UniProtKB/TrEMBL annotation:
InterPro entries reported for this sequence: FAD-dep_OxRdtase (IPR006076), FAD/NAD-bd_sf (IPR036188)
Keywords recorded for this protein, A-Z: Oxidoreductase
Its EC number(s): 1.-.-.-
PANTHER family registered for this protein in UniProt: FAD DEPENDENT OXIDOREDUCTASE DOMAIN-CONTAINING PROTEIN, SARCOSINE DEHYDROGENASE-RELATED
Organism, scientific name: Streptomyces coerulescens
Keyword Oxidoreductase: yes
One GO molecular-function entry: oxidoreductase activity
UniProt-recorded name of the protein: NAD(P)/FAD-dependent oxidoreductase
Domain FAD dependent oxidoreductase intervals: 29-392
Length: 440
């Protein structure tokens, strides 16, 4: 990918279909705005199940240019808040369905990779949520109790059992068996090529400026150099929702950070669970995490979250440098052999976050035929693909296989994030991140 202020991810952008900017007035049966995993999954399922429909995918830059190509490739079962909080907020039955839906989303991505023949460094292996801090231990205890009460297969691990798998002195953990790691840009690119092979039209370098109901039905979408009239539209724009004024509640754009390293020694790679493909996520808020790369290096992320809106460019650059520097120190602390390990890539990306930790996947109020997908709160690799498939099913008028999940909704809760509230929110994030970084 092209280097930028956001840094350079460890993933190479694959070959992509032609994507000229949208010029003049165009039409489509379905317009999908956003060429990330959610938008492309929606276009893919529409084209596969309803061949002959004219589908256009439009992006401000191009496939994998946003969060979908700047993730860290952890494919794990997580949707919404931690399981114990999900039980308190939504009840046991809904919490169990939410978790099982996230597990199903992981298996569907694995199946999709097989169908697309994605050369994306896919490695199946368990994901461990672990901790070294008392606060994390208490959180793990609450989650373990909830999983047991719901009859879900998420075993507890003692400190010795965690260390036997990854060789880091954690004191306890939870084992998620259905998990994997992969190259997110490769998966996004493969979906784009599959869509193009099915006749989907692509337009790049065309940021959406406005969307409104069409005078004769459908909707109209404005771009810098043209206009698109469509019968239906899917706005898979995630944290860009506020800039478009979409009535989808508060989708807060937050910046998160990652680094990748040079290959480690064979001994360190084995001790860190590399050959078994383990990924490890800390149980604390803003959890730092790491996972092995197929070339013998490591990817690490988390530890810092920045609210970029209203933050000047110099302060944002300084925040990025501090976040990357802390991640480099943290990953080097995982094993004695990593003390002088070079960092080869540093990057950041924007995720969409909601006040209750749940995504928003539903029709947009006041815009008939327009749907929105976003707000996965940093857990969108598997769920974005599932959300795209769900919206495709809804647009085709197929019956829903079950009751709506809590994130099948049109808006997230409103949050006071402007004016005097913004500095308070930024301070809260800084304090919470600082506490996690000191503990880890």
């Amino acid at each position: 990918m092209t280097p930028s202020a956001y840094g350079t991810p460890a993933w190479e952008l694959p070959d992509l279909p032609a994507q000229p900017p949208l010029h003049g007035t165009a039409t489509a049966d379905v317009a999908v705005v956003g060429a990330g995993l959610a938008g492309l999954a929606c276009a893919y399922h529409l084209a596969e199940r309803a061949p002959g429909r004219e589908i256009a995918v439009i992006d401000a830059e191009g496939p994998a240019a946003g969060a979908s190509g700047r993730g860290t490739g952890l494919l794990g079962p997580r949707a919404g808040p931690a399981i114990d909080r999900a039980v308190r907020r939504h009840g046991p039955w809904a919490a169990r369905r939410m978790y099982l839906a996230s597990v199903r989303a992981v298996t569907e991505v694995l199946d999709l990779c097989g169908r697309l023949h994605v050369p994306c460094g896919l490695r199946t292996g368990a994901q461990i949520m672990a901790t070294r801090a008392p606060a994390g231990l208490a959180s793990l205890g609450r989650q373990a109790g909830a999983y047991r009460a719901l009859g879900l297969d998420v075993p507890e691990l003692s400190g010795a059992q965690v260390r036997a798998r990854v060789g880091v002195p954690y004191t306890a953990g939870l084992l998620h068996r259905t998990a994997a790691t992969l190259d997110p840009a490769a998966l996004t690119g493969a979906l784009a090529r599959a869509c193009a092979a099915k006749g989907v039209r692509f337009h790049g370098r065309s940021p959406l400026l406005a969307v409104r109901a069409g005078e004769r039905g459908g909707c109209e979408l404005d771009f810098p150099q043209g206009r698109l009239r469509a019968g239906r539209a899917v706005l898979a724009v995630n944290s860009a929702a506020p800039s478009l004024g979409l009535p989808v509640g508060t989708i807060l754009p937050l910046e998160v950070y990652a680094v990748a390293t040079a290959p480690v020694s064979d001994a360190a790679y084995e001790e860190l669970g590399g050959y078994d493909g383990y990924a490890v996520v800390d149980a604390l808020p803003m959890a730092p995490y790491f996972r092995p790369l197929p070339d013998g290096g490591l990817v690490a992320g988390g530890g810092t979250v920045t609210l970029p809106t209203g933050l000047g460019a110099p302060r944002l650059r300084a925040a990025r440098e501090r976040a990357w520097a802390w991640l480099a120190r943290w990953v080097r602390s995982l094993h004695p052999d990593l003390a002088h390990l070079p960092v080869t890539h540093r990057w950041s990306g924007r995720v969409g976050t909601t006040g209750d930790g749940l995504p928003v996947v539903g029709p947009v109020h006041g815009l008939p035929g327009v749907w929105y997908i976003g707000g996965c709160c940093g857990h969108g690799l598997a769920m974005s693909v599932a959300h795209g498939a769900h919206v495709a099913t809804a647009l085709l008028g197929d019956p829903d296989p079950g009751d709506p999940l809590p994130w099948h909704r049109s808006a997230a809760p409103r949050m006071p994030v402007h004016g005097p509230a913004r500095p308070l929110l930024r301070t809260y994030l800084d304090v919470l991140g600082g506490s996690t970084r000191r503990t880890c």
